[in-house]
Design brief:
mainly alpha, about 35% helix, single chain
């Protein structure tokens, strides 16, 4: 036996509710995108590549190589 269930549809006034600020989500997305994409912080510019001046002062220019 088939059962029939009914649901009431919302009235047209309730069916579509325009957002309070229609472009707020789009604006927030693009703002976060530009902040992330064009961030002034670039860690590769601050990455230390090789020994620094303290290491060179302690071990000399080429360092101590241990020979067996």
């Amino acid at each position: 036996m088939a059962s029939v269930s009914t649901t009431s549809s919302p009235s047209p006034e309730q069916a579509f509710e325009p957002p309070a600020r229609p472009f707020e989500e789009i604006r927030a997305f693009w703002r976060q995108f530009f902040v992330a994409a064009f961030s002034p912080y670039r860690p590769e510019l601050h990455y230390m590549r090789g020994p620094g001046p303290a290491w060179e002062a302690k071990y000399g220019r080429k360092g101590n190589s241990r020979s067996a």
